[in-house]
Structures are given as C-alpha cells and as structure tokens.
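Troubleshooting log. The previous run stalled partway through. Resubmitting the same two chains, unchanged.
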Amino acid sequence: MQNFLNIMGGIGNFFLPIFILLTMFNVGLTQTIQDLTEYLKDWKFYLRMLLTNFVVAPLVMYLLLQLFSVSPELEIGLIIFSMAAGAPFLIKLTQYTEHDIALGASLLLVLVLATCLYVPIVLPLLMPEISVDDLQIFFTLVRQLIFPIILGMLLDKFAPKITDAIQPWVAKLGGITLYIVIIGILVGEAEGVIQIFGEGAILLSVVFVLIVMAIGFFMGGKNDIDHLRMSERSAPDSATLPPA
Amino acid sequence: MIIASANFGHIPEVLLIITIANTLGIVMLIFIAKYLSQDNHTERF
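Second attempt completed without errors. Output:
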C-alpha cells in the first residue's frame, strides 16, 4: 500500500512541471504580446486583483489563524499559501469559465512578478527567523512560467505551420496532465492528509479558498476588454473569474 | 510550493499542507469555474 501511495505521489510530482510547461507553452502558442498587454490598460482591474491577492488574502488567513490555532509548522505553510499568488492553474480556470486566455495570462504574469517582489520582503517581516532567497524564487518562476510563454511566442512567429500542428496537442496534453497531477498528489499524500486531518489545517485552507474566492469574485467585476473580445468571438458570456 | 521547497524543505509539514491546500483549492475552483460557465450558458437561453 505504501509503495502504491509513493508511486502515485511520484507520478503527481513528476507531471506537475510538465503540466506547467505545457500550459504556459500553450499560452505562448496562442497569444501575442499585444494580446497580453492590451489587458494591462485596465489598470484598475489589476490593482483590485493585487489588493485581493496580497492584502486581503493574507489578512483573511491571519484572522482564521487567530480564530483556529494549528501547529507552528502548518501555520507557516498556511501563511505562505495565503501570500503567494500566480499559480499556472489560473490559465486552466480561465479556460473553464470561457474567458479570454490572454486575460488569465496577463493577470498571471502580473501576480508572478508581484509575488517575486512581495514575498521576499513581507515573509521575513512576518517570520523573522527565516530568510527567503528572492533571486532563486525569481529565476525559478521565470524559468517555469515566463520562459515557456516566450518560447511559444517565438515558435508561433517563426514557424506558424509547426505551431498550428502542435498547438491542439499541447492544449490537450496540458488538460490531461492537470488531472494526472491532481489525482497523483491527492492519492500520494493520503497518508499525510490523515496524519494532519485532526489539526483542522486542511479545513482552514478550504474555508480560506472559499472566502478569498468570494471576495475575488466581487472584486474582479467585469473586464471590458474581455467582454468585448469574447462577444466578438460569439462566445457565451460568463462571470469574471476570481483571482488565483 | 516553489517558495516552500526552497526555504522549508527540511520541515515536511510545511510542504505537505501547501501541497494539499493547493491541490484541494484547484479541485474546488475547477468545479466552481465549470458551474459558473454552465450557469451562464443556461442564462443565455
């Protein structure tokens, strides 16, 4: 049984960087720099998202931790969880809600860059006993998230025929690897879940996600450029996705 | 996870809770995103 859990966890962790690479590469294959920068004109939207992710979310976690105490190790994990924004899953969520991927990608880039600046400054203030290697975080995020986008954009520009041939497969494989990652990690970490379940940290994280999602939903409002683009493509209208 | 693995690799509980919270959060958000999309399709017709 233990071997099975280890294998599943190993599969999940093996496919996680592949999922990230394929998802971000697909963004590069399907979007141009103009697509991404067009959304940045709506600076109020990004300001609201930055506020939600870097002020409201950590504050919600702080309040939850005041109400429900967990062990110091789990507390550190939950604080980091609440502070870091810009998960590549944001792209998939944007697809699921049938919004323009460029909106998700531009928001992801803004959140990643903000995380690179925010975490090394704020985390040591909250936890003075730790030091954060900001350069390592920055270069890891650039390598995993931004480099595949640039690679995809370059391929689309200089070899559009190859892009047309591989893009549907990259998108499909990205979707499949997401489910492999989720199942692998959830099954692989089952023993750990059982070990810490009684502490209430998992429930706390679920409550945190739901609260921040609701706040993000209302803070997001409607993005005019997104609505215009999606109506031009005759795509169905849908509510704005909450932040990552 | 990148931040935690770079700075708290020696404390497995930190990585564990971030991994679990992250994965559960994604699962919840996928369901909510699909529901929102479906809901809006219904509203259109």
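Takeaways: Chain A touches chain B through 49 residues (CB under 8 Å). Residues 18 and 106 of chain A are 21 Å apart (CA to CA).
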